[in-house]
């Protein structure tokens, strides 16, 4: 069935996006607690009446920002598999680039959410784990080890989200394309040896960081 978006719906979403952009910029400047509806409407160049047409209040706006972002990441993750039956996991996964590209395009929102929710990594892990549990079955290569499926899911999801969170923590220093390639390589390349640097034994991580 063809769904035709009404022009009024597009205008409403543009207004919402402007309000969200104003709120996000203010959150990054002074924190969510300090931001008022008046601050947001002045930054977005709308009156309070327009704000209340779209959001009952500030808590609802902040919840909408979180829900909308998570839904966007979820769609970026799941939609590439809609018509697929099987995927080679040794190559670039269909979802890898869309997820990194979505987060890169909404990096200010992600950064703002990280300041408001210290558990953003956990939220992403739970979402990815739900998709993998409900919609996918992972097939492993033959191994002498007995692999616990749930632990394997936890490992893969935690690794993926860990890379995403590190990317955010370093200010999105690298492009989404580079991060997608790196994640693919990390999943497929296993470290084979651990080298101990001379003179490093017995020193704490804190001491090493101070010297560096």
Task: Explain this structure.
By secondary structure, the protein is mainly alpha-helical. It folds into 2 domains: 1-55, Homeodomain-like (Arc Repressor Mutant, subunit A, Orthogonal Bundle), CATH 1.10.10.60; 64-188. It has helices spanning 7-30, 37-44, 48-54, 58-78, 96-105, 107-116, 120-135, 149-169, 176-188, 205-211. Mean pLDDT is 89; it is low at 1-6.
Helical amount among residues, as a percent range?
A: 55-70%
Number of helices: 10
Average pLDDT over all residues: 89
The secondary structure category is: mainly alpha
**Assembly type of the shown chains?**
single chain
Topology:
Layout: H1 7-30, H2 37-44, H3 48-54, H4 58-78, H5 96-105, H6 107-116, H7 120-135, H8 149-169, H9 176-188, H10 205-211
Describe this protein with a few key phrases.
single chain, 212 residues, mainly alpha, Arc Repressor Mutant, subunit A, 2 domains, 10 helices, elongated, disordered N terminus
Produce a short descriptive summary:
GO terms for molecular function: DNA binding. The protein is mainly α.
């Amino acid at each position: 069935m063809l769904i035709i978006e009404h022009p009024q719906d597009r205008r409403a979403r543009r207004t919402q996006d402007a309000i969200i952009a104003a709120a996000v910029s203010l959150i990054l400047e002074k924190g969510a607690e300090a931001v008022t509806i008046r601050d947001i409407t002045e930054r977005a160049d709308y009156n309070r009446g327009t704000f209340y047409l779209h959001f009952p209040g500030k808590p609802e706006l902040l919840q909408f920002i979180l829900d909308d972002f998570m839904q966007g990441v979820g769609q970026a993750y799941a939609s590439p598999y809609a018509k697929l039956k099987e995927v080679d996991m040794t190559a670039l996964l269909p979802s890898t680039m869309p997820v990194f590209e979505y987060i890169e395009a909404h990096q200010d929102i992600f950064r703002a959410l990280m300041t408001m929710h210290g558990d953003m990594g956990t939220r992403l892990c739970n979402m990815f784990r739900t998709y993998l549990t409900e919609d996918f079955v992972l097939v492993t290569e033959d191994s002498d080890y007995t692999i616990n499926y749930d632990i394997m899911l936890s490992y893969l999801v935690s690794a993926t989200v860990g890379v995403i969170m590190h990317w955010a923590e370093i200010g999105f220093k690298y492009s989404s394309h580079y991060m997608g390639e790196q994640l693919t390589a990390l999943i497929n390349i296993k470290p084979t040896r651990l080298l101990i640097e001379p003179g490093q034994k017995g020193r704490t991580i804190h001491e090493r960081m101070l010297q560096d």
